[in-house]
């Protein structure tokens, strides 16, 4: 992995950022850029579906509607965008709590626990079974891409410093470098000194 993001990774970040902030005209342009950079239709759909976990169903649904309309226009204009792979199904009877806990532990670098999860065990279970289980087990988008999308979304939303720093750490655990995360942060449409400082704190261990 080099110190710079590739075109698909930059497009992933832009798609996620504009989805999270609801900036539809800019999102439409980013979606086209992503397809032109080689993202498949199913990879883009996967980014937009994942965004509901961080920005809510309304933003995710609006983005998917925008993507549908864009694909129809591109087909009318003679573009043939590859569908790409569908996610592979897990075996019947898979314990999603077990799978999600393992995914979360691998991504975080250690088991995740704490007073908040003791206070509200339901949210801990939902995070493990659904976010890190159901969503992060869908293998047509790799974990680096998922973390690029997550960081880009969180960076554009207010009041999420703790979650953003957590996902900076997770992104590093997927093999992204500090240089790549700096490039990601400075290239975001909502870039500001706050996100750069939060990343610096993670990279310096503060």
TrEMBL record:
It comes from the Bacteria. Residues 3-65, 121-186 form the Carboxymuconolactone decarboxylase-like domain. InterPro entries: 4CMD/NDH-1_regulator, AhpD-like, CMD-like. It holds the Pfam family CMD. This is Carboxymuconolactone decarboxylase family protein.
